[in-house]
Design brief:
The protein is mainly beta and 103 residues long. It has a single domain, classed as Jelly Rolls, CATH 2.60.120.10. It is built from 1 helix and 9 strands. The strands form 2 sheets. It has a 5-stranded antiparallel sheet. Strands 3-8-5-6 form a 4-stranded antiparallel sheet, with no helix packed on it. β5 (46-51) and β6 form a beta hairpin. The longest helix has 13 residues, at 90-102.
């Protein structure tokens, strides 16, 4: 299973967007956590979302999945060509960028 393809990262009006393409059914965004609340928007296709070991269910295009700070979460595509956009505030984005820079 892949970790998806990050198509782009952008900052607009104080929000940070990370667009991810899950090309095949079963592709996933591996479990991870952030220090800030955020949401993942399903732009097209569909995913099953988990927070920790709890399955939140299926989310289809047009849905947003709220994620609470510090909670590990992951997404698995149930349709090909599923597009996700993780949406963070800029403070959260700066923390993410610092973690990526350090290692």
């Amino acid at each position: 299973m892949s970790e998806g393809i990050v198509e782009f990262v952008d900052e607009v009006n104080g929000l940070y967007f990370r667009s991810i393409l899950l090309q095949k059914r079963g592709d996933e965004v591996a479990q991870h956590a952030h220090d800030y609340d955020h949401a993942t928007y399903v732009g097209s296709g569909a995913v099953v979302a988990w927070v920790g070991e709890k399955c939140l269910g299926e989310f289809w295009g047009g849905s947003a999945v709220p994620i609470t700070a510090g909670h590990p979460h992951r997404f698995v595509a149930i349709m090909p060509d599923t597009r996700l956009a993780c949406v963070h505030n800029v403070e959260s984005a700066n923390a993410i960028k610092e973690k990526e820079r350090v290692g």
